[in-house]
Amino acid sequence: MAPTPCALCKLSRALIIRPKNYQKLCKPCFIFLFETEIHNTITSSSLFRPGERIAIGASGGKDSTVLASVLKTLNERHNYGLDLLLLSIDEGIKGYRDDSLETVKRNAVQYDMPLSIVGYDELYGWTMDQVVSQIGKKGNCTYCGVFRRQALDRGAARLGIKHVVTGHNADDVAETVMMNLLRGDLPRLSRATSIVTASTASDIKRSKPLKYAYEKEIVLYAHHKGLDYFSTECIYSPEAFRGSARTLIKNLERVRPSAILDVVKSGEDMAALVPAKISNPGFSTTGAKDIAVVLDGDAEGEGGCGSSSGRASGGEMAVMELRLRDQETREGKETQNADHETDCTLHGQRHDRHKPTPGAKPSSKGKRLPKQQLQKCIRCGYLSSQSVCKACLLLEGLNRNRPKTQISVSVEEEEISPTLTRRMEGLTTAGPEAANVT
Question: What is the distance between the alpha carbons of residues 69 and 407, in angstroms, rounded to a whole number?
Answer without folding.
Answer: 48
